[in-house]
Amino acid sequence: MENTIKLVASDIRQNIDNPEFDATYKKYKLFNLLKYLSLVLLLVAIIMAVVSSIVLENLLFLQISLAVAGITVLTTLIFYWLARKASKKVALAVDGVDWNKIYQNAFSLYQKNNLTGGEFKKVEFKSLSRIKNVNSIFRLYEEPKYWLKQYDFLTDQYNENHIEMMYEDKYLFFKVNPTTECIVVRHYTDSKGKSQTTTTYYYVTTYNLSMENTKFDNSYNGVKVLPGKTNDKLFQTESIEFNKKFKINLNSTDLRAAKLLRPKMIEKMMNLDNKDFKGLGINNDFVIGKYNIDKGYTLKTLTNQIAVFDKMSKSSKHGPTYNFAKKVINDIGAIADCFQYLEGIY
Predict the structure, then answer these.
(1) Which of 226, 244, 243 is nearest to 287 (CA)?
(2) Are 71 and 41 in contact (CB under 8 A)?
(3) Which domain does 202 fall in, by range?
(4) Which residues contact 25 (CB under 8 A, 6 or more apart)?
(5) Residue 36: inside a domain, yes or no?
């Protein structure tokens, strides 16, 4: 994995049309740091001015403090302008990269190094559709599990940033949906009897991989295999362990269930890590839905979207392009992860 990321990072660096990219990136980091240091110094100067005026009643000390505060305001504005200027140059350089080519090359490297194995090595990358700045977000005041319970992976329509592929003669389409911010506010009484409030932010990302359906007719539309123990009213397979982990939304006498849940598919699903599994179903095409939940306390940069990068994140010891390459490989890894569920269908 590490060598693959480094190779992709090298490919990105060669495609960045700015020989001074690294220097510009370092300037942004420096100016940003100096900007915040200036703000701290400004706060200190204001405190000194208040102390000298009210407590010490020292006019000279007050004048010096105000002078320092004025100079600090000026330097803060200068560093802010320099950091903003450098960040724009970095953003232009990154957005100018031929990311379709980068993803295509990275796809081949991923398969060559057999990072997933299985049938994924037969998947052919076709194209990347990329919007530079995806900033859409849904904000809800509820637990992530309640939102996920309502979310239907089979019918969502979002398809801005996506990757198109082919598997043998079947069309594949991968997309990552807009991030959903779930804000959970809790009120409680602490050990001293005081009322307290905590606010926790959860960022839920859902992503889908669809594959052209040449196996079942339209009567299968709406059929879903979902996580969770089945019951007597629903169809049950011969695998007791499978029935404990999955259920299908068809009754026990529906013949469609047995045709979809063949032994090959059951065995495949039982051997996968299903912790982020949302479901597998049919809506003309086969669709696999997965999700990811990040926990935080402030709004995160929306970099879960395909080919959307945090251009200003802390760079690794290998340089900023390493972070971009890691994101590319993570995107491809998500596709490979979803694809494993579809291997058992045909």
Answers:
(1) 226
(2) no
(3) 98-212+285-342
(4) 86, 90, 315, 320
(5) yes
Other C-beta atoms lying within 10 Å of the C-beta of residue 65: 21
pLDDT higher than threshold 70 for residue 18: no
CB-CB contact of 18 with 24 (8 Å): yes
Residues 147 and 50 in one domain: no
Residue 250 pLDDT grade (very low, low, confident, very high; cuts 50, 70, 90): very high
Total domains, the chain? 2
Q: Please state, in angstroms and rounded to a whole number, the distance separating the CA atoms of residues 30 and 26.
A: 6
Answer yes or no: do 207 and 147 share one domain. yes
Do residue 64 and residue 170 come from a single domain? no
Is the model's pTM score more than 0.70? yes
Same domain, 207 and 289: yes
75, 94, 113 - which closes a domain: 94
Q: How far is 249 from 242, CA to CA, in rounded Å?
A: 14
Regarding whether 168 and 201 lie in a shared domain, the answer is: yes
Residue 38, classed as helix, strand or coil, is: helix
